[in-house]
Amino acid sequence: MDATRFGIEEEFLLLDASALVPLSGSEIVERVKGPAPGGGSVTSEYLTCQFECATDPVRTLEQAGSQLAAMRRMLADLAPRTRSSRPRVHRSRSRGPR
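Below the sequence we write its predicted structure tokens.
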């Protein structure tokens, strides 16, 4: 039996949709920090506009994808709305394994 497990981390930036400047996400992160419904966890980063979602250790891509999708939906639902449009939650591009 293969016991290989892995996890995925995603870094997010909260940006104003029209100006593309960083917004403070500290209020959002304080509401969701810790274990996420459906698995995984959300943690704060050094900058208040940046936060991280990480899956639990999983065995399949489907399990990881399900956890990431649930966390993305949760963050999008909590992103503050502006008069001009909805803010963008931008996922940083990974630079490969660390």
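The chain has a mean pLDDT of 82.
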